[in-house]
Amino acid sequence: MEPIQYKDWSPTTDDLKGYMLYDYQEWYIVPAMRTRDSEELDVSNFETAKRLLYDSGHEYYVARFNHWGPGWFEVILTPTPEPAVDIASRLEDYPVLDDDDFYRREYEAAEERWVDLMSMWDRIEMCVKNGLSRFAARRLTPPTAILDDLRTW
């Protein structure tokens, strides 16, 4: 994949390329972005990309913008193309930069839905639908058998 410089990039086709950030026009976009509406995969890849850059000693800059669509978004810029190409090549064949980080975030989000967002009736319905006892709905942590349903709930 050919790295993209900030001056040639825009978040959507309706946005200006290289908007603002006059000192970073020649820097390269790392292909990991997050927005107000990002789900666990995007957040995990974004945070992992920052960690990979930091651990390898590469300089980087996180730019945050208000945006008419998602409310805000953040991108990572680096002064050399190599880190952007490396991360892009890792994402080319497999969409997750760090499985452990992604699955941890996914489980925490499912647990939050179970504890904070679902009513007891919703929990009972989900347990019964997945062949579990209705009494499993009393648990403080979600049964692993329903994690897939919790991701989409």
| Elements, N to C (H/E) | EHEEHHHH
Euclidean distance between termini CA atoms: 35 Å
The residue ranges in which pLDDT falls below 50 over 5 or more consecutive positions are none
Beta strands, count: 3
Morphology call: elongated
User: Could you report the average pLDDT, rounded to the nearest whole number?
Assistant: 91
| Proportion in helices | 40-55%
Strand content: 15-25%
Q: How many domains make up the coordinates?
A: 2
Q: Helix/strand/pairing class, anyone?
A: alpha+beta
Please describe the biggest sheet, giving its number of strands, its sense, and whether it closes into a barrel. Answer: 3 strands, antiparallel
Number of contiguous helices: 5
| Computed CA radius of gyration, to the nearest angstrom | 20 Å
Side-by-side strand order of the widest sheet: 1-3-2
Top keywords for this entry?
2 domains; 3-stranded antiparallel beta sheet; 153 residues; alpha+beta; single chain; 15% strand; elongated
